[in-house]
Structure prediction request, 939 residues.
Amino acid sequence: MARPLSRRSLLQAATLAAAVPALSEAATGRAVAAPAAAAAAGIPAAWTVRPFGLEDVRLGRGVFADKRQLMLDHARGYDVNRLLQVFRANAGLATGGAVAPGGWEGLDGEANGNLRGHYTGHFLTMLAQAYRSTKEQVFADRINTMVEALAEVRTALRREPEVLSVAGKFGTAADQVRGSYQYVDLPAAVLGGASAVTLSVWVRPTHDANWTRVFDFGDDTTRYLYLAARNQAGVPRFAITASGPGGEQGLDGTAPLPLNQWSHLAVTIADGTGTLHVNGTAVARNAAMSLTPAALGTLKNNWLGRSNYSADPVFAGAFEGFDVFSRALTAAEITELQSRRAADASTGRGDLVSYAFDETAGGTFADASGRGLTATLRRTWGGPSHPGFLAAYPETQFIDLESRTSPDYTKVWAPYYTAHKILRGLLDAYTATDDDRALDLASGMCDWMHSRLSRLPKTTLQRMWGIFSSGEFGGIVEAICDLHTITDKTEHLALAKLFDLDRLIDACAANTDILDGLHANQHIPIFTGYVRLYDETGEERYLTSAKNFWDMVVPHRMYGIGGTSTGEFWKARDVIAGTLSATTAETCCAYNMLKLSRALFFHAQEPKYMDYYERALYNQVLGSKQDKPDAEKPLVTYFIGLTPGHVRDYTPKQGTTCCEGTGMESATKYQDSVYFAKSDGSALYVNLYSPSTLTWAEKGVTVTQTTGYPREQGSTLTFGGGRASFTLRLRVPSWATAGFRVTVNGRAVRGTPKPGSYFDVSRTWRAGDTVRVALPFRTRVEKALDDPSLQTLFHGPVNLVARSSATEYLKAGLYRDAGLSGDLTASLTPVPGKPLHFTLDGTEWAPFAEGTEDPAHAYFRRAEPKVVFGGRDSGVANPAKADGTTLLEEVWAGAPFRNKGALVARVRSTVDVWVAAGLLSRADGDKVVSTAGAASYEP
Prediction:
């Protein structure tokens, strides 16, 4: 069967969007005769602009390339087999000695590793983006390794478990990889109703979890006998009971079993006495053990490696030589078993059951006792409900969520969020490499999810998606819609709609703000998905809700750096100062707000979306990546504390967190929104000023942007290739109030650029044409919405932070040297040799984007105790109104001033009002006016 055209191929051929591949005639019946036709068919009709592929925009030298290089080195150096370990273990496959990453990707991590697998998806996306951007074969090779392994995992999950044969004490053994949730199921007749018994087994435990069972024979938690490798004290324990745990007759060892070493365990019961032997030595004896297998009768559950207590962990390690005898072996016989198999010892094989675990294939183990009690390897959870299932843990979290009414991430931690990350990684792998296996895996996952969710009542789905954490599903709707664009399967579009969270959609569509108390990152990516659902269905409520939602976050819940959330949650609207903490601005939130802003811009070219994009990208996202190499960790923040003196943590929590995952993605797609094209090819949007080269294949031109921005206050664009007629749309940032000047080939372009807009230059472009953009920076403050005295400092697009270990808000004044334009730059002293570094009152201020571990102050307390103009002190205290607004603030709110006279007139009129209100004496007012008139000012 012919596969759909890859997104990579279409992007290269027709400048298609990274998120929306087209289909071949073989797959759809629609001809794709030419690049333009492919482009027209391959992007949503609702998009009025489209992005370029990562392969179409090459980063030039600068801060973005430097940060990306650090992440590319990490992508090259990290062992992907460690990521695959949890998948292989879940499928019962050999893990090759790889050690799981740990943290959120390991069974010993937070919440028992219930999120494991998500990081693998992030890593795949990073590799795909790296390959598309650089074409380095190492990234394609690593993608191939991961996709091949995941295909093997799914194949293994589709079939019944098969033995994993390893070297044993005497021959071969059956290994139970930790995380496989496999056990050996024995027939009910295994104990044979014996009144005397010996149970003998060789084990090699690989993990030290308490209460893992070597064997457990019972009906439930009332009638059973078991041997645990470790009890609560960490030593072996045998117990038998007919009346539950309170009636246990037990034997406890004296020392822990060593890990990764073979140990022999034997339990004998006869004549009212039970004995536990470890490695040939009797370590415990109970002369009051009145119960025997005969007293328990025939038991239903007879397991090696699994407990009748469902909360107990499954045994991790290897089994060799399990024998059950209908008599109590002597101490000498047990000693003999230390050096040879039962079959070769004087005891002979167990007469009730005897498994040598010699099998090297299949999922059954032969009984050599002569009783024919074949044992079977099974999973505790049975197996997938659908052949498309793919995960690094059993399907149980998905099942549990369907009946869950409250969050508990130790039981269910966002399984559909993890599924999204894996799905997205596979789609991106397909985009980058045309690997049909990746597409097949992605399509299969969606087939499986549809089979699960389509049978559930709508009320159940609404309840599920409304549960904090457990019901989180991330950007899965976007990924499913992207897949639907490729497969055109009705079930895939239907699946995307099953993630509708009606309460949220309806409220936001009605512009009703219900965000207070919601988990931020659980909800932001939902709306990017709903924008894509609008593309696929035309249902307006999806797009309207997303637009209104964005406006509820920006600026009402946004910090100066572009981040949002405190302790992962949103608080009341317009509360900024009141939410500053050590756990503000979760990095994932910025990543997802960028994606949403981008998606909305495709539909409505409102400059506010790209203004926000620049703010968050050039500040929080850049600053979340530490400026140093590390092969083991990506060095990305989780939270960015905005409290005084906060030091960023680039190795958060236990590692492999969601924010480290999105951080890996962000650092390999910095160029994805520098340029967009009008859908009809009539215009090129320059959204960001960043050193880069665009290859616009559809027009046959290249555009090379040369700049040191934001160290340089401007950029130069040089055209190459052939002639092409289109409008060049240059973004005029909302902060660019000091002028925005454009020349083409040295000649000024007429027009009046307006901050917060796009400035158009229309012409037929030729090779060698040069456009120079000058956008002088001004220094300004942004005030916390709920406390105007708490402010953050910007120089152009650059958020400046004070480097100080003080844990109280620093106080700073800025009006004393303010220019007529309102520019506060003159109050700052540049630091020689350190671009964008300044001093103010003896404290160094630096770009937030620098990924250092210096204690920083992102917010400071504005303090203007005296009325000062142009460095001249009037000697008058700066009075304030009841709401905190000061005289100087009211004066400078009128900036920019066309000349000194306009400023003095503003001072005079303001003073008159304050004097009339009794807020300032006439004498002091005259001093203020006189000082303003005598002072000199920068422009």
